[in-house]
Task: structure prediction
Amino acid sequence: MKNEKLIHALGNCINHCNYCADACLDEDNVKMMKDCIRTDRVCAEVCSSLSQVLATSYSDVQGLVDYCKKVSEACAEECSNHEHKHCQDCAEACRKCAEACSAYKA
Result:
């Protein structure tokens, strides 16, 4: 598949963001985690949308790739502010996703 590397990074990011958002809900101070949860949810949705579009032959995707990179970087930054393992793992997956978006040329 043409976009396999980016699609793989997107899937990994989606999984980590969804897991992180869910795990944040189990933390003692959920209110402190609200920005992390919101950012995780948005990042997972944007990555999911991009993954679905990349699986087609549609070629005008660079704008969505650029936006996905921006959201992934924001999610990595937010998650890296928290010491929880799920947040740190999510931050790493988001950084890798942003790197894959940067490497993509439509």
